[in-house]
Amino acid sequence: MIQLLIKEEGRDLLNDTSFGGLPVRERGSEPEWPKCLCGKELQYQGKIRTDIGYEMIFMYDCDECWGDGTVQVASAENVEFYHPEDASVALRKTEYGAKNVAVAQTDYNDAREEWQGRRRDVLGQLYGKPAWIQGDETPKCTCCNAKMRFVAQLEEGPDHTTAMNFGGGCGYLFDCPEGRTAKFIFQC
What is the pLDDT of residue 41? Predict the structure, then answer.
């Protein structure tokens, strides 16, 4: 069984899995917006709600720096949106929610092919096994040095003009429930 992530308008962008828009923080906390080596704020891509909270993905979006990006984890309780210093750099020009749809397939690529809706509305998959483009690159956790748990595989998005930039490939989110840490990589 594959759990597809499907674009759905009208979702609660504060409390559900969502892409674009604003990240969340625990009320009263002051997380620092992640920055690249040149000092520019990383671009917020979206958040996945998991059993450890919200895993929020930020990626490089500048010509000088390049990398897989970073993930911030926030509790799923008592959250509020927070804003970057420079919205023109740090925010995508789109926002949309996502719902989980169980598909009777065991392979992600087969599940995507058989999806009956608009093809670009398939945003990825939750849990299961990653469909690697270049081979297994499962990261190790910084807290326990064990291979991290696969959380999500993400497609670039429903609109090519505002898509997440994975170089035409896919993004992969991993976490460690024990340490409440997460990592994000992409392959193209």
Answer: 94
Per-residue HEC secondary structure of 15-81 comes to CCCEEECCCEEECCCCCCCCECCCCCECEEEEEEEECCEEEEEEECCCCCCCCCCEEEEECCCCEEE
Q: What is the pLDDT of residue 65?
A: 72
Percent of the chain with pLDDT over 70: 100
Strand order across the 95-103 sheet: 70-74, 53-59, 43-50, 18-20, 95-103, 2-8, 122-126, 149-154, 170-176, 181-187
Q: Is-above-0.85 flag for pTM?
A: yes
User: Phi-psi bin for 36: left (phi > 0), alpha (psi -120 to 50), beta?
Assistant: beta
Q: Has residue 130 got a pLDDT over 90?
A: yes
Pair of tokens at residue 124: 């990825």
Mean pLDDT of 85-104: 93
Alpha-carbon gap, residue 56 to 183, rounded angstroms: 10
Rounded Cα gap, residues 106 and 38, in angstroms: 42
Q: Tokens 């450890």 correspond to what residue?
A: 52
- Among residues 89, 93, 94, the alpha carbon closest in space to that of 62 is found at 89
- Single-letter amino acid, residue 161: T
